[in-house]
Design brief:
The protein is mostly helical. It contains 18 helices and two strands. The protein has helices at residues 2-16, 26-39, 62-68, 77-104, 107-119, 121-127, 133-153, 156-169, 176-189, 196-224, 239-253, 260-286, 292-318, 328-331, 333-338, 356-387, 394-397, 400-406, and strands at residues 45-47, 53-55.
Length: 415
């Protein structure tokens, strides 16, 4: 079932992006520029705001590298990006479903988590645009899953693979440092080894995973004299971005068209209900009645969610003039990691001692949420299919400015 959900996800992105092509933003333009130059052997280059071709410093290189690989298959970068994103959506749906099955051992859990990932509107949207987040989510999920497997089986190859995957995530988004940090914290707890063996395992993980960004920083210093063009400092005006981040979380639950007050109340109720469910789960864990995989999964994924949240807030407050918006792109890894845990909160134990009316109410709320999410996703897919997104939308491609640019000679620079 997980495989077929992945196939549906793959086909869905191909269908959504068929008329207008993969969606594009300002970041997408940089990725395509870097990919095209890398494919011709010039390295990762992009145009500055002044129109000067220079080494790419602001963005990590792995997503442009993946796009550049299409050149060796005889595909243009736009068509290849579309195939890559479709594949990554299928992979991410598959990984979430498999993780749910791994945690619970139940096929219906895999079906529920996989289906929720498939119809989650922000997942569909991001995978239909040429952005680095789909690849980041894939590496994040694989990293966390390998750490969970290592915590259970204590096999060195799993630790090495987790280090390679989490280190690679930092070459997709610098936020991958949260993945490395979360995995490192989890390795302090698991496996239950003590002494030098645990310490060596943790140090090996950190050295191997952090070697990826170190090599990239060395390349930047060699070419331009600086490790990155990111600015550091404390930016108190970014506190407003944190408030907007809470608004983004509310939009994960209800459409932006709902009044903000309603969305915030629903978000608060959701967080309170989640807190109660998690409290009950951890109480059960202390009694020793909970399966080992469930304990490991909640520990590893819970650590990641907390570390990623903290890392994101610190990034907003101390990096890049506080200008990074806490939008759906930045916060999407949170629900992507949490969806695999949803079936663990719907186990039979949580319905014991509750009246039938209350059980019916809980089931009704869940069905309403899934139905609303499906309708939101269907509406989004319909809109992107008809109009595209960003620089590949019909609004942009049909604009007079674009038509005028197309009439210019090929050697005329356009900034």
């Amino acid at each position: 079932m997980s495989f077929w959900l992945a196939v549906v996800a793959f086909v869905a992105v191909l269908i959504i992006t068929a008329p207008c092509g993969i969606g594009m933003t300002k970041d997408s333009v940089v990725y395509f520029q870097a990919a095209r130059h890398a494919a011709t052997g010039q390295g990762f280059l992009s145009f500055s705001q002044q129109g000067i071709l220079e080494p790419m410093l602001h963005y990590p290189p792995l997503y442009p590298a993946v796009l550049a690989a299409g050149n060796y298959l005889g595909m243009d970068v736009f068509g290849w990006a579309r195939m890559v994103n479709a594949f990554l959506f299928g992979l991410n749906v598959f990984l979430i479903a498999i993780m749910a099955f791994y945690i619970t051992g139940r096929r219906r859990s895999a079906l529920l988590s996989g289906w929720l990932a498939l119809i989650f509107v922000q997942m569909v949207e991001i995978h239909s645009i040429a952005l680095s987040e789909p690849l980041f989510i894939s590496l994040m999920l694989l990293s966390l899953w390998m750490v969970m497997r290592y915590a259970e089986y204590n096999r060195m190859w799993m630790l090495v693979l987790a280090a390679l995957l989490s280190g690679s995530s930092m070459l997709v988004r610098y936020g991958g440092l949260s993945v490395v940090a979360a995995c490192a914290f989890a390795l302090v707890i698991y496996p239950r080894d003590r002494g030098i063996k645990k310490l060596l395992g943790l140090l090996s993980f950190l050295v191997l995973s952090l070697s990826f960004p170190v090599v990239w920083a060395w390349r930047n210093i060699f070419l331009s004299g600086v490790a990155t063009d990111i600015q550091w400092g404390f930016f108190p005006q970014a506190l407003g971005n944190c408030v907007r981040g809470l608004n983004t979380l509310s939009i994960f639950l209800l459409p932006a068209g709902f009044p903000a007050a309603v969305r915030w109340v629903v978000l608060l109720l959701f967080l309170l209900g989640l807190a109660v469910a998690v409290r009950d789960l951890f109480r059960e864990m202390r009694t020793g009645e909970t399966a080992a995989r469930l304990k490991i999964a909640w520990t590893v994924l819970g650590i990641f969610i907390l570390v990623y949240l903290a890392g994101t807030v610190l990034t907003v407050l101390f990096i890049s003039n506080g200008g990074m918006p806490l939008d759906r792109r930045v916060l999407l890894p949170l629900p992507a990691a949490a969806i695999a845990l949803v079936p663990t909160l719907l186990r039979r134990r949580y319905f014991e001692g509750i009246s039938r009316k209350m059980i019916s109410l809980r089931v009704l709320v869940l069905l309403l949420f899934l139905g609303l999410m499906f309708l939101r996703t269907a509406q989004l897919a319909k809109g992107m299919y008809k109009n595209g997104f960003g620089y590949t939308s019909r609004t942009w491609t049909g604009a007079e400015l674009v038509k005028t640019i197309r009439t210019l000679a090929d050697d005329v620079p356009v900034y």
